[in-house]
Fold these 2 entries.
Entry 1:
Amino acid sequence: MNTNRRTFLQLASGSALALAGGNFLQSCMNSMNMGDMSDVVIAGETGLPLRLPPVWNGGTINAGSLNLDVQGKTIQAWAMGGSVLAPTIRLRKGAAFSAQLQNQLSTETNIHWHGLTVPSTMDGHPKDVAKAGGSFAYNFPVLDRAGTYWYHPHPHKNTARQTYMGMAGLFIVEDPAAETALGLPSGEFDVPLVLQDKRFGQVKRFVYAPSMADVMTGYLGDTMFVNGVPVPYLDVENGVYRFRILNGATARVMKLGFENGMAFHVIGTDGGLIDAAERVTSVILSPGERVEILVDFSSVAMNGSVLFKTLDFTLPAAPASSTPHGGMNGMSGMMMSAYKQGVAMPIMRFNIKRQTSRQVAIPTTLTPIERLSAGAATKTRTFALNMEMMSFEGGSSPHGGMSGGEMMRHTINGKLFAMERVDEKIAFGATEIWEFQNKGDEPHPMHVHGTQFQVLSRSIGTLTAVDKGWKDTVLVNPGETVRVILRFDKYRGLYLVHCHNLEHEDDGMMLNFEVA
Ligand code: C2O
Ligand code: CU
Ligand code: CU
């Protein structure tokens, strides 16, 4: 059954009760905790120092629960490799990676190597899991360009929960031949920052409990964590730093910038360095995306400081009249969550404490990008991103607690994810254009497994600095169509395309494609 939001509202005020067996509207009302509406207090700085994740030194990666000490409180988290965040894996391009995942959780898990091109059976498809108490052996060659990739669990309907609870880490590929000559900041001046928001301010716990409204928007938080530490600080020298930033949130789109408005340079995106540095004062980064930036702190006074934030923003959107769902009224109006996209939140503070002795010039040209040309594409596929009335099975995450019926679900081409169904068949070696058409009023960061792509065009506005270079995740704004070009010439087998708003993914906004 296909319906739009206006129809849904009419249903909700009348026949939805019958339609949904009485459960739907009730759950909807329960999830609209009106008392919440003004309750979200964005957490401020904690005065805690930034932590760097440990570096992985080979061997087993245990998945299990872990007690974290945050602000003198014991927080129960889930960890990979005994740490939140999980250890950073650093390998050279061409290396052979191998690690055993040992699952000590009481639920199934696996690892997906986000952005890396790996054999289908190693990719962390939800059918390939380590059962509770079980294990899974990962082996693959590191084929991809130098860059900042990451890893996180990908079990059926449980990706958001496990990632939120702390299971995520960086996988950095190095390639001295490609990067050394550029003289980019290295060692302690090359700093990974994994950004995740959580509902932590009031509760001082990690609780993953999305209501129905949260499944619509994603589980947005009130506190920004950096490398597992809430709103920390870092002491720096007054020189140039390279920051490798991952938006590791389940749903929050971030507009990254400094409180004093100072400029910085984008040098890399999901698949490594871009061809030319781009000077900006902010960048929009959606869940799953990475951006590498060079920041020069020399304009900040010695012993001064500068706050790094996600700034206020409104996502570009098609005019309400041209979207089938009528913009911000309709579903979002009814299913209003107190948590919102686009809200300003402090991320971390940089304190300028030391005089630099390094001379770092911002390189203008970086690494050449091989352009895929639209003329080489042999096929164009469209992926319509929508919300539709669909049935759902009771009790399943992320709709835990509800007992089944019909409700709005996130679909691609009218379908919810099915584990074994092959939705798209792709000829090995082909170059294709994929068109993501956002038919609704929520942002969808679309992610493709098994290959990297390039963004060709946006229907609203122009390409941003983080759309440049090689990508595996691209933000598709409300009402927008984004075209990307991809080539499937590394591996055959089954891979996934999905929304990286992890609540949407777990809700079924994911398809299988097979390269054969
Ligand atoms: Cu990072 Cu299939 O996801
Ligand atoms: Cu991925
Ligand atoms: Cu989505």
Note: The radius of gyration is 22 Å.
Entry 2:
Amino acid sequence: MQLTTSYPQLNTPVFAPDKSKINGDFTHKDILSLDQFTVEDLHTLFGLADEMKQLVLYHRPSSMLAGYVVSLLFFEPSSRTFASFASAVKRLGGETIEIQNPETVSSVSKGESFEDTMRTFEAYSDAIVLRHYRPGSAQVAADTASVPLLNAGDGNNEHPTQTLLDLYTIYKNFGRLDNLTCLLAGDPLNSRVIHSMMRGLSLFENNRVYLLSPEQLRLKRSDLFYWGERGINIVEIDHERDIPAYCDLWYWTRIQKERFASPQEYESVMKRGFIVTPELLHARAGKHTIVMDPLPRVSTVDPAVDADERAVYFREQIRNGLYIRMALLALVLGRA
Ligand code: NCD
């Protein structure tokens, strides 16, 4: 199928896999893509996240990151990713430099280059957490800064720490990450969360993904073939009636307004958006289907669904983001 050319079609950068693979050693690694992880790496992270959860639940003081400073540089808005990284550092006894909107409050506003900004913050901190609207910016920052760079979302490319917390949530619910039937809905073309999730799911055997979206927001054809080659069984659908009755999870993403060329284009696609309602859950979900959303919720899930015990976005995903980011920081800074 031909995609409408007026939608953003940014190239997904290809990471040099060998150089960046974790392969059991997180220390001093940049975290840019889900492609860096093996199944064993994920389990190492999940095991430590379990411990971090206990630490948080019982308010155990930790000095794991005492003496460490982490810079949070967010060139795009964020609530959960920003606050959970900040909380993660502080829960482990470290300090943060927190800058949201560097383009208005830092020397970026005077015209400083992106690379010079990275060179500055590497001097003041032991790791940099970066969110940026440009796909591939995390790689550029990692190439520039000598301290570990954690990608907190780069344009429509990837959002690896979101997927790590999502995989952890799925694992905690089902005890496995293979043989899953998943429904990923919303904006496969532009959602960096879906792009990282596809990479994550492709690490495991026999996963089937139904992608529900308006036709204009389907995955790039090259991505569709790439992930198909990697073993995910992908089915594209554009109507709720085609949602299979036996999904393990529904993962809803918002249509990414900020990636559209004009408000009019966004509005026209929104007309055929999909929303999880109690009625849709009743009609098409299973008793054990979990409902996930990376949030913010913008025309994704009806608030009437929040009370349903299958809804895990508030109860589990947000909190798991804290535990996973604590674990990741401890591992990357060699303090686990
Ligand atoms: C996601 C993001 O920023 O990509 N949000 C998040 O980090 N929890 C999803 C989104 O904004 O749609």
Note: Residues 1-17 have pLDDT under 50 and may be disordered.
